[in-house]
Amino acid sequence: MTRSEELPPPLPDSVLDRNAWDQAVAGNSNAALIFFLARNPDSPYASAARQMLASRRAPDPPGTARAVAGPDAGIIEAFDAARLSGDSGALDGFIASYGNYPLAAEALRLKSR
After folding, report:
1. C-beta neighbour count of 107 within 10 angstroms
2. Is residue 11 scored above 70 in pLDDT?
3. Which of 19, 53, 70, 76 is the most interior residue, by most CB within 10 Å?
4. Torsions phi, psi for 28 (to 5 deg)
5. What is the rounded (10 degree) CA torsion for 109, 68, 32, 93?
6. Cα–Cα nearest to 106, from 23, 30, 33, 38
7. 5-42: b (≥16 Cβ within 10 Å) or e
8. pTM: predicted TM-score of the whole model, two decimal places
9. Segment 18-53, tens digit of pLDDT
10. Angstrom distance (rounded) from CA 17 to CA 7
């Protein structure tokens, strides 16, 4: 029996954060930024993601969320629709429907502004 090579050590969190952020920026979409925030709400890049997302005032083309988030596409689209509506009732509806999803905290943050 031969010994397999040892696995390399895991990447540091700072590298993982930067890779995820670079991927979100490269995605050039609301969905990519929202997906980043859903997975990395406390990242050093989260504030920049929120600022970029706030400047985006039109929905993504159909299919963008599916390409970015796969099975979570519906949640990403629902968050974006609530965010773009500017209506706190829409954010409340999102929170009621997806309260266990990480973006519920982001919806609460938007409501408090």
Report:
1. 24
2. no
3. 76
4. 45, 50
5. -20
6. 38
7. eeeeeeeeeeeebeebbeebeebebbbbbbbbbbebee
8. 0.86
9. 888 999 999 999 999 999 999 999 999 999 999 999
10. 21
- Tokens 């990480």 correspond to 102
Q: Are 98 and 75 in contact (CB under 8 A)?
A: yes
- Asked if 21 and 45 touch (Cβ cutoff 8 Å), the reply is yes
Cβ atoms < 10 Å from Cβ of 98: 18
Among 26, 24, 64, 66, residue whose Cα is nearest residue 47 = 24
Q: Are 49 and 37 in contact (CB under 8 A)?
A: yes
Vertex 98: Cα angle to 75 and 104 (nearest 5): 95
Q: Would you say 98 and 104 are in contact if contact means Cβ atoms under 8 Å apart?
A: yes
